[in-house]
C-alpha cells in the first residue's frame, strides 16, 4: 500500500514514511523523522526532526511530538497532546540575549508498545511511558509511567491499571488487599494501598482481571504482570 500525503501537508524530503502511512492536512513531518508502516498523522500534527515512530501509530489532530521522542509500535497520541523536549525552557540567556536554536540540549519522551496518551495531555521530558499504559486526557506526566498503568491528574498519578484492550482492569476478590469505596473523579474503585508514581508498594499482591479479554494480572511494588487464570 502506498503512502498518502495530502497537498497541504509539509513533509520533509529527508523524512521517511513507511508503507501505508497517511499524513493529513496542515501536518508537518520534519527532516530525519522516521515513521513506520500504516501510521496516521492527523490534521495539524507536528513531528520533530529525527523523531522515530514504529508501525501502526496514530497521531490525532494537532498532536505535537518534539524531538528526540521515540514511539514504539501501536502508540496512540490524542488530539492536542504534547511531548516536550526542554527541561529548562528559556527564551533568553541570563545576560538578556536571545537564545539560539542550538544552545540547549533536547531531551525526549519514550513511549513503549501500545501505550495511549489522552487528549491535551502533556508528557514532560525526559519520561518513559510503559507498554500498554494509558495517560488520561489533560494529565501532566513528570515521572516514568509503569507498563499497564492508568494515570491521571496534575501531576499524573496512578489510579488503576489497564489491559492491552485499553479497558480498566477490575480487582479480583481473592483475599488480596481491601478495595477503597472511593476513587478520584468517580472512577472505579482502586486498592486502598495502591501506590502513586512516587512509590509506596502495596502490602501484598493484588489480582486483577480484564473484563474484555479475561486475562488475569497481579501487581506488586508498582508493577503488574500477567498470570495464569485459575
UniProtKB/TrEMBL annotation:
SUPFAM superfamilies: Trimeric LpxA-like enzymes (SSF51161). One of its GO terms (molecular function) is transferase activity. InterPro entries: Hexapep, Trans_hexapeptide_repeat, Trimer_LpxA-like_sf. Keywords: Transferase. Residues 172-208 are annotated as: Disordered. This is N-acetyltransferase. It comes from Georgenia yuyongxinii.
